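Sample 3 of the quickstart, ligand adenosine monophosphate:
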Amino acid sequence: MNILILGSGGREHSLAWAIKQNPKCDRLICAPGNAGMAAISDCATLDIMDGGAVRDFCLENAVDFVVIGPEAPLAAGVADRLRAAGILCFGPSQAAAALESSKSFTKEVCAAAGAPTAGWARFDQVEAAAAYIAAQGAPIVVKADGLAAGKGVVVATDVAEAQAAAKDMLGGAFGAAGAEVVIEEFMPGEEASLFVLCNGTSCLPIGSAQDHKRAHDGDSGSNTGGMGAYSPAPVLTPEIEAEVMARIIRPTLAEMVRRGTPYQGVLYAGLMIDKGQARLVEYNVRFGDPECQVLAMRLGAQILDLLLATAEDRLHEIAVNFAPDHALSVVMASRGYPGAYQKGSEIHGLDALPSNSHQEVFHAGTSARDGQITATGGRVLNITARADSLRAARRLAYEMVDAIDWPEGFCRRDIGWRALEG
Ligand code: AMP
Ligand code: GLY
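Result:
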Protein backbone atom coordinates (compact mmCIF):
# COMPACT_ATOMS: atom_id res chain seq x y z
CA MET A 1 0.00 0.00 0.00
CA ASN A 2 0.97 3.65 -0.45
CA ILE A 3 1.41 5.46 2.84
CA LEU A 4 1.69 9.17 3.58
CA ILE A 5 3.15 10.44 6.86
CA LEU A 6 2.50 14.08 7.76
CA GLY A 7 5.19 15.86 9.77
CA SER A 8 8.91 16.57 9.83
CA GLY A 9 10.21 15.72 13.29
CA GLY A 10 12.06 12.87 14.94
CA ARG A 11 8.67 11.37 15.76
CA GLU A 12 7.74 11.15 12.09
CA HIS A 13 11.17 9.88 11.03
CA SER A 14 10.93 7.04 13.54
CA LEU A 15 7.42 6.16 12.32
CA ALA A 16 8.67 6.22 8.73
CA TRP A 17 11.66 4.03 9.67
CA ALA A 18 9.41 1.41 11.32
CA ILE A 19 6.63 1.52 8.70
CA LYS A 20 9.13 1.19 5.86
CA GLN A 21 10.28 -2.16 7.29
CA ASN A 22 6.79 -3.64 6.98
CA PRO A 23 6.27 -5.58 3.73
CA LYS A 24 2.76 -4.08 3.45
CA CYS A 25 4.39 -0.72 2.69
CA ASP A 26 4.95 -0.28 -1.07
CA ARG A 27 5.50 3.44 -1.46
CA LEU A 28 6.24 5.71 1.49
CA ILE A 29 5.78 9.47 1.16
CA CYS A 30 6.54 12.01 3.88
CA ALA A 31 5.36 15.61 3.88
CA PRO A 32 7.19 17.81 4.37
CA GLY A 33 9.80 15.45 5.90
CA ASN A 34 13.47 16.13 6.66
CA ALA A 35 16.86 14.89 5.46
CA GLY A 36 16.52 11.61 7.38
CA MET A 37 13.09 10.90 5.97
CA ALA A 38 14.24 11.86 2.47
CA ALA A 39 16.79 9.05 2.65
CA ILE A 40 14.07 6.39 3.09
CA SER A 41 10.99 7.88 1.44
CA ASP A 42 9.75 10.33 -1.16
CA CYS A 43 9.33 13.76 0.41
CA ALA A 44 6.55 15.98 -0.86
CA THR A 45 6.09 19.72 -0.47
CA LEU A 46 2.63 20.05 0.97
CA ASP A 47 0.91 22.39 3.43
CA ILE A 48 -0.04 19.80 6.05
CA MET A 49 -2.39 22.26 7.77
CA ASP A 50 -4.54 22.46 4.65
CA GLY A 51 -6.93 19.48 4.74
CA GLY A 52 -8.14 20.09 1.19
CA ALA A 53 -4.58 20.14 -0.17
CA VAL A 54 -3.70 16.93 1.70
CA ARG A 55 -6.86 15.24 0.41
CA ASP A 56 -6.11 16.26 -3.20
CA PHE A 57 -2.53 15.04 -2.86
CA CYS A 58 -3.77 11.66 -1.60
CA LEU A 59 -6.21 11.29 -4.48
CA GLU A 60 -3.58 12.27 -7.07
CA ASN A 61 -0.95 9.91 -5.63
CA ALA A 62 -3.18 6.91 -4.84
CA VAL A 63 -2.38 7.15 -1.13
CA ASP A 64 -4.08 4.33 0.78
CA PHE A 65 -3.29 5.36 4.35
CA VAL A 66 -2.33 8.64 6.03
CA VAL A 67 -0.58 8.86 9.41
CA ILE A 68 -0.84 12.33 10.96
CA GLY A 69 2.13 13.00 13.25
CA PRO A 70 1.71 16.41 14.94
CA GLU A 71 -1.21 17.91 16.85
CA ALA A 72 -1.65 21.08 14.77
CA PRO A 73 -3.15 19.43 11.65
CA LEU A 74 -5.34 17.26 13.90
CA ALA A 75 -6.65 20.34 15.73
CA ALA A 76 -7.19 21.95 12.31
CA GLY A 77 -9.45 19.07 11.20
CA VAL A 78 -7.21 17.45 8.58
CA ALA A 79 -8.32 13.94 9.66
CA ASP A 80 -11.97 14.95 9.17
CA ARG A 81 -11.29 16.19 5.63
CA LEU A 82 -9.53 12.94 4.73
CA ARG A 83 -12.23 10.69 6.17
CA ALA A 84 -14.94 12.70 4.45
CA ALA A 85 -13.18 11.84 1.15
CA GLY A 86 -13.04 8.13 2.10
CA ILE A 87 -9.28 8.16 2.76
CA LEU A 88 -8.09 5.88 5.56
CA CYS A 89 -6.33 7.92 8.19
CA PHE A 90 -4.73 7.53 11.62
CA GLY A 91 -5.54 10.36 14.02
CA PRO A 92 -8.52 11.90 15.79
CA SER A 93 -11.18 14.24 14.44
CA GLN A 94 -10.95 17.93 15.20
CA ALA A 95 -13.65 17.52 17.87
CA ALA A 96 -11.79 14.66 19.59
CA ALA A 97 -8.44 16.50 19.28
CA ALA A 98 -9.87 18.96 21.83
CA LEU A 99 -8.45 16.52 24.40
CA GLU A 100 -5.16 18.26 23.62
CA SER A 101 -6.22 21.60 22.18
CA SER A 102 -8.36 22.61 25.19
CA LYS A 103 -7.27 21.97 28.77
CA SER A 104 -10.70 22.90 30.17
CA PHE A 105 -12.38 20.45 27.75
CA THR A 106 -10.13 17.68 29.08
CA LYS A 107 -10.95 18.65 32.65
CA GLU A 108 -14.69 18.49 31.90
CA VAL A 109 -14.31 15.08 30.25
CA CYS A 110 -12.28 13.80 33.23
CA ALA A 111 -14.92 15.10 35.64
CA ALA A 112 -17.70 13.36 33.73
CA ALA A 113 -15.61 10.18 33.45
CA GLY A 114 -14.55 10.19 37.10
CA ALA A 115 -10.90 10.06 35.99
CA PRO A 116 -8.47 11.15 38.73
CA THR A 117 -6.72 14.43 37.94
CA ALA A 118 -5.73 17.64 39.75
CA GLY A 119 -8.42 19.87 41.25
CA TRP A 120 -8.98 22.91 39.01
CA ALA A 121 -10.91 26.05 38.14
CA ARG A 122 -11.18 28.11 34.96
CA PHE A 123 -10.97 31.90 34.63
CA ASP A 124 -11.16 34.59 31.97
CA GLN A 125 -10.74 37.56 34.37
CA VAL A 126 -7.45 38.48 36.04
CA GLU A 127 -9.00 39.62 39.37
CA ALA A 128 -10.98 36.42 39.89
CA ALA A 129 -7.94 34.30 38.95
CA ALA A 130 -5.72 36.22 41.38
CA ALA A 131 -8.23 35.85 44.21
CA TYR A 132 -8.54 32.10 43.61
CA ILE A 133 -4.75 31.72 43.58
CA ALA A 134 -4.46 33.65 46.84
CA ALA A 135 -7.14 31.47 48.44
CA GLN A 136 -5.56 28.20 47.25
CA GLY A 137 -1.94 29.09 48.07
CA ALA A 138 1.23 27.74 46.41
CA PRO A 139 2.61 25.63 44.87
CA ILE A 140 -0.02 25.93 42.16
CA VAL A 141 -0.11 25.45 38.39
CA VAL A 142 -1.35 28.00 35.84
CA LYS A 143 -2.10 26.89 32.27
CA ALA A 144 -3.20 28.69 29.13
CA ASP A 145 -6.32 26.83 27.97
CA GLY A 146 -5.35 26.38 24.30
CA LEU A 147 -2.35 25.08 22.32
CA ALA A 148 0.75 27.07 23.28
CA ALA A 149 3.52 24.88 21.83
CA GLY A 150 4.29 23.39 25.24
CA LYS A 151 5.02 26.81 26.76
CA GLY A 152 1.66 27.65 28.28
CA VAL A 153 2.20 25.99 31.69
CA VAL A 154 3.71 27.65 34.77
CA VAL A 155 4.34 25.53 37.85
CA ALA A 156 4.51 28.37 40.40
CA THR A 157 6.22 28.02 43.76
CA ASP A 158 4.64 31.15 45.22
CA VAL A 159 1.37 33.04 44.94
CA ALA A 160 2.85 36.16 43.32
CA GLU A 161 4.48 34.11 40.53
CA ALA A 162 1.19 32.32 39.82
CA GLN A 163 -0.75 35.57 39.80
CA ALA A 164 1.77 37.15 37.42
CA ALA A 165 1.52 34.12 35.10
CA ALA A 166 -2.28 34.31 35.03
CA LYS A 167 -2.11 38.04 34.34
CA ASP A 168 0.37 37.50 31.49
CA MET A 169 -1.68 34.74 29.88
CA LEU A 170 -4.99 36.58 30.19
CA GLY A 171 -3.22 39.72 28.96
CA GLY A 172 -2.47 38.02 25.64
CA ALA A 173 1.01 36.49 26.05
CA PHE A 174 -0.26 33.39 24.20
CA GLY A 175 -2.85 35.09 22.02
CA ALA A 176 -6.20 33.31 21.82
CA ALA A 177 -4.75 30.21 23.55
CA GLY A 178 -4.63 32.25 26.77
CA ALA A 179 -8.07 33.86 26.59
CA GLU A 180 -8.92 31.44 29.40
CA VAL A 181 -6.62 29.97 32.03
CA VAL A 182 -6.97 26.77 33.95
CA ILE A 183 -5.59 26.92 37.50
CA GLU A 184 -4.70 23.55 38.94
CA GLU A 185 -3.70 21.93 42.16
CA PHE A 186 0.02 21.05 42.15
CA MET A 187 0.49 17.27 42.01
CA PRO A 188 3.70 15.90 43.53
CA GLY A 189 5.22 12.70 42.14
CA GLU A 190 7.08 11.25 39.17
CA GLU A 191 5.85 11.73 35.60
CA ALA A 192 5.50 9.00 32.99
CA SER A 193 3.55 8.63 29.78
CA LEU A 194 1.37 5.80 28.56
CA PHE A 195 0.55 5.42 24.86
CA VAL A 196 -2.76 3.78 23.98
CA LEU A 197 -4.18 3.05 20.53
CA CYS A 198 -7.91 3.78 20.54
CA ASN A 199 -10.94 3.56 18.33
CA GLY A 200 -14.25 4.34 20.02
CA THR A 201 -14.27 2.20 23.15
CA SER A 202 -11.61 -0.28 21.88
CA CYS A 203 -8.13 0.35 23.15
CA LEU A 204 -4.69 -1.23 23.29
CA PRO A 205 -1.73 0.07 25.32
CA ILE A 206 1.49 -0.05 23.30
CA GLY A 207 4.07 1.05 25.81
CA SER A 208 5.25 3.59 28.34
CA ALA A 209 8.03 6.15 28.23
CA GLN A 210 9.60 8.92 30.22
CA ASP A 211 10.67 12.23 28.72
CA HIS A 212 13.23 14.81 29.95
CA LYS A 213 11.65 18.22 29.54
CA ARG A 214 14.40 20.51 30.82
CA ALA A 215 17.23 21.60 28.55
CA HIS A 216 20.18 20.68 30.76
CA ASP A 217 21.57 17.95 33.00
CA GLY A 218 19.99 17.39 36.38
CA ASP A 219 16.66 18.66 35.03
CA SER A 220 17.93 22.25 35.02
CA GLY A 221 17.37 24.99 32.46
CA SER A 222 14.28 25.90 30.46
CA ASN A 223 11.43 23.64 29.47
CA THR A 224 11.81 22.19 25.98
CA GLY A 225 9.82 19.92 23.70
CA GLY A 226 11.81 17.03 25.22
CA MET A 227 15.55 16.31 25.37
CA GLY A 228 15.50 12.53 25.54
CA ALA A 229 13.33 9.55 26.39
CA TYR A 230 13.41 5.94 27.31
CA SER A 231 10.93 3.08 27.24
CA PRO A 232 9.61 1.35 29.25
CA ALA A 233 9.19 3.67 32.25
CA PRO A 234 9.76 1.47 35.31
CA VAL A 235 7.62 3.74 37.51
CA LEU A 236 4.59 2.72 35.46
CA THR A 237 4.32 -0.84 36.79
CA PRO A 238 1.89 -3.31 35.20
CA GLU A 239 -0.42 -2.82 38.23
CA ILE A 240 -0.47 0.97 37.84
CA GLU A 241 -0.94 0.63 34.07
CA ALA A 242 -3.98 -1.61 34.64
CA GLU A 243 -5.41 1.02 37.04
CA VAL A 244 -4.78 3.78 34.50
CA MET A 245 -6.59 1.81 31.79
CA ALA A 246 -9.54 1.06 34.10
CA ARG A 247 -9.91 4.44 35.82
CA ILE A 248 -8.62 6.97 33.27
CA ILE A 249 -8.40 5.70 29.67
CA ARG A 250 -11.52 3.53 29.32
CA PRO A 251 -13.84 6.01 31.11
CA THR A 252 -12.44 8.85 28.95
CA LEU A 253 -13.10 6.90 25.75
CA ALA A 254 -16.63 6.03 26.91
CA GLU A 255 -17.30 9.70 27.68
CA MET A 256 -16.02 10.74 24.23
CA VAL A 257 -18.40 8.22 22.62
CA ARG A 258 -21.25 9.48 24.81
CA ARG A 259 -20.57 13.02 23.58
CA GLY A 260 -20.76 11.87 19.96
CA THR A 261 -17.04 12.53 19.37
CA PRO A 262 -15.39 9.09 19.53
CA TYR A 263 -11.60 9.12 19.71
CA GLN A 264 -9.48 7.40 17.03
CA GLY A 265 -5.71 7.47 17.09
CA VAL A 266 -3.08 7.29 19.79
CA LEU A 267 -3.96 8.75 23.15
CA TYR A 268 -0.89 9.93 25.02
CA ALA A 269 -1.67 10.06 28.72
CA GLY A 270 0.76 12.21 30.72
CA LEU A 271 0.56 10.82 34.25
CA MET A 272 1.79 11.86 37.68
CA ILE A 273 2.54 8.87 39.86
CA ASP A 274 2.71 9.32 43.59
CA LYS A 275 2.72 6.55 46.21
CA GLY A 276 1.59 3.98 43.65
CA GLN A 277 -1.39 6.07 42.45
CA ALA A 278 -1.58 7.72 39.04
CA ARG A 279 -3.43 10.91 38.17
CA LEU A 280 -3.78 12.46 34.73
CA VAL A 281 -1.64 15.55 34.04
CA GLU A 282 -2.71 15.96 30.43
CA TYR A 283 -3.73 14.18 27.28
CA ASN A 284 -2.03 14.61 23.94
CA VAL A 285 -3.71 13.37 20.79
CA ARG A 286 -0.55 12.13 19.03
CA PHE A 287 2.68 10.34 19.79
CA GLY A 288 5.19 12.17 21.97
CA ASP A 289 8.40 13.46 20.49
CA PRO A 290 10.96 12.02 21.48
CA GLU A 291 8.84 9.30 23.16
CA CYS A 292 7.75 7.96 19.77
CA GLN A 293 11.35 7.33 18.79
CA VAL A 294 11.85 4.82 21.61
CA LEU A 295 8.46 3.20 21.10
CA ALA A 296 9.00 2.87 17.34
CA MET A 297 12.41 1.30 17.85
CA ARG A 298 10.97 -1.24 20.29
CA LEU A 299 7.90 -2.06 18.20
CA GLY A 300 9.57 -2.02 14.77
CA ALA A 301 7.63 -3.02 11.65
CA GLN A 302 4.53 -4.15 13.57
CA ILE A 303 3.74 -0.49 14.16
CA LEU A 304 2.13 -0.32 10.71
CA ASP A 305 -0.16 -3.27 11.53
CA LEU A 306 -1.08 -1.60 14.81
CA LEU A 307 -1.85 1.79 13.24
CA LEU A 308 -3.85 0.13 10.46
CA ALA A 309 -5.83 -1.96 12.96
CA THR A 310 -6.64 1.26 14.82
CA ALA A 311 -7.80 3.12 11.71
CA GLU A 312 -9.81 0.11 10.47
CA ASP A 313 -11.42 -0.47 13.88
CA ARG A 314 -9.84 -3.92 14.28
CA LEU A 315 -8.02 -3.32 17.58
CA HIS A 316 -9.83 -6.28 19.17
CA GLU A 317 -8.15 -8.59 16.59
CA ILE A 318 -4.57 -7.57 17.23
CA ALA A 319 -2.01 -7.96 20.02
CA VAL A 320 1.30 -6.23 20.59
CA ASN A 321 4.40 -8.36 20.32
CA PHE A 322 6.38 -6.80 23.17
CA ALA A 323 10.06 -7.66 23.43
CA PRO A 324 11.53 -7.54 26.95
CA ASP A 325 13.94 -4.82 25.86
CA HIS A 326 14.70 -1.16 26.52
CA ALA A 327 15.22 1.79 24.20
CA LEU A 328 16.72 5.18 24.91
CA SER A 329 16.96 8.28 22.74
CA VAL A 330 19.22 11.30 23.25
CA VAL A 331 18.16 14.54 21.56
CA MET A 332 20.93 16.67 20.04
CA ALA A 333 19.81 20.28 19.71
CA SER A 334 21.29 23.49 18.33
CA ARG A 335 23.21 25.44 21.00
CA GLY A 336 20.86 28.02 22.49
CA TYR A 337 17.71 25.91 22.11
CA PRO A 338 15.00 26.42 23.39
CA GLY A 339 16.03 30.08 23.06
CA ALA A 340 17.59 31.64 19.96
CA TYR A 341 19.97 29.43 17.97
CA GLN A 342 21.90 29.53 14.71
CA LYS A 343 20.74 27.65 11.65
CA GLY A 344 22.80 26.11 8.90
CA SER A 345 25.72 24.53 10.80
CA GLU A 346 27.18 21.35 9.27
CA ILE A 347 26.94 17.98 10.99
CA HIS A 348 29.66 15.41 10.29
CA GLY A 349 30.20 11.79 11.21
CA LEU A 350 26.67 10.50 10.67
CA ASP A 351 27.56 8.21 7.75
CA ALA A 352 29.92 6.13 9.85
CA LEU A 353 27.32 5.38 12.54
CA PRO A 354 25.56 2.03 12.86
CA SER A 355 22.13 1.90 11.27
CA ASN A 356 20.19 -1.21 12.19
CA SER A 357 17.26 -2.47 14.28
CA HIS A 358 19.14 -1.58 17.50
CA GLN A 359 20.85 1.71 16.65
CA GLU A 360 19.55 4.55 14.51
CA VAL A 361 19.74 8.32 14.24
CA PHE A 362 16.30 9.84 13.71
CA HIS A 363 16.42 13.29 12.19
CA ALA A 364 14.31 16.27 13.24
CA GLY A 365 15.45 19.74 12.07
CA THR A 366 17.84 18.74 9.28
CA SER A 367 18.23 19.31 5.59
CA ALA A 368 20.69 17.92 3.07
CA ARG A 369 22.60 19.93 0.48
CA ASP A 370 24.88 17.99 -1.89
CA GLY A 371 24.91 15.16 0.61
CA GLN A 372 25.95 17.41 3.50
CA ILE A 373 23.55 17.38 6.48
CA THR A 374 22.91 20.77 8.05
CA ALA A 375 20.96 21.77 11.15
CA THR A 376 17.80 23.73 10.42
CA GLY A 377 15.90 23.58 13.70
CA GLY A 378 16.10 23.59 17.49
CA ARG A 379 15.90 19.85 18.06
CA VAL A 380 17.98 18.30 15.31
CA LEU A 381 18.89 14.63 15.88
CA ASN A 382 17.56 11.78 18.02
CA ILE A 383 20.29 9.26 18.77
CA THR A 384 18.37 6.11 19.56
CA ALA A 385 19.44 2.67 20.73
CA ARG A 386 17.83 -0.50 21.99
CA ALA A 387 19.28 -3.29 24.12
CA ASP A 388 18.47 -5.93 26.73
CA SER A 389 18.98 -3.43 29.52
CA LEU A 390 18.45 0.32 29.79
CA ARG A 391 22.08 0.74 30.84
CA ALA A 392 23.27 -0.99 27.66
CA ALA A 393 20.88 1.04 25.51
CA ARG A 394 22.24 4.22 27.09
CA ARG A 395 25.84 3.18 26.46
CA LEU A 396 25.10 2.44 22.78
CA ALA A 397 23.29 5.77 22.34
CA TYR A 398 26.09 7.86 23.89
CA GLU A 399 28.73 5.97 21.87
CA MET A 400 26.96 7.26 18.78
CA VAL A 401 26.61 10.77 20.23
CA ASP A 402 30.36 10.86 20.88
CA ALA A 403 31.10 9.91 17.28
CA ILE A 404 29.13 12.85 15.88
CA ASP A 405 31.12 15.94 14.95
CA TRP A 406 28.82 18.92 15.44
CA PRO A 407 30.37 21.67 17.59
CA GLU A 408 27.23 23.84 17.26
CA GLY A 409 25.07 21.17 18.89
CA PHE A 410 24.55 20.00 22.47
CA CYS A 411 22.77 17.26 24.35
CA ARG A 412 22.05 16.17 27.89
CA ARG A 413 24.48 13.56 29.23
CA ASP A 414 22.08 12.13 31.81
CA ILE A 415 19.17 10.73 29.82
CA GLY A 416 17.70 7.82 31.77
CA TRP A 417 18.97 8.98 35.18
CA ARG A 418 15.68 8.48 36.98
CA ALA A 419 15.51 4.83 36.05
CA LEU A 420 19.25 4.15 36.40
CA GLU A 421 20.28 6.32 39.35
CA GLY A 422 17.04 7.80 40.68
P1 AMP B 1 1.13 20.00 30.51
O1 AMP B 1 1.39 20.81 29.27
O2 AMP B 1 -0.23 20.13 31.06
O3 AMP B 1 1.63 18.61 30.40
O4 AMP B 1 2.15 20.60 31.60
C1 AMP B 1 3.54 20.66 31.36
C2 AMP B 1 4.29 20.13 32.54
O5 AMP B 1 3.98 20.88 33.71
C3 AMP B 1 3.95 18.70 32.91
O6 AMP B 1 4.65 17.78 32.15
C4 AMP B 1 4.30 18.67 34.37
O7 AMP B 1 5.70 18.52 34.53
C5 AMP B 1 3.93 20.03 34.85
N1 AMP B 1 2.56 20.04 35.38
C6 AMP B 1 1.42 20.30 34.71
N2 AMP B 1 0.35 20.22 35.53
C7 AMP B 1 0.81 19.91 36.75
C8 AMP B 1 0.19 19.71 38.03
N3 AMP B 1 -1.12 19.84 38.21
N4 AMP B 1 1.00 19.39 39.06
C9 AMP B 1 2.34 19.28 38.91
N5 AMP B 1 2.98 19.47 37.74
C10 AMP B 1 2.24 19.79 36.67
N1 GLY C 1 7.80 15.15 24.52
C1 GLY C 1 6.61 15.77 24.91
C2 GLY C 1 5.57 15.86 23.89
O1 GLY C 1 5.69 15.32 22.81
O2 GLY C 1 4.55 16.48 24.15
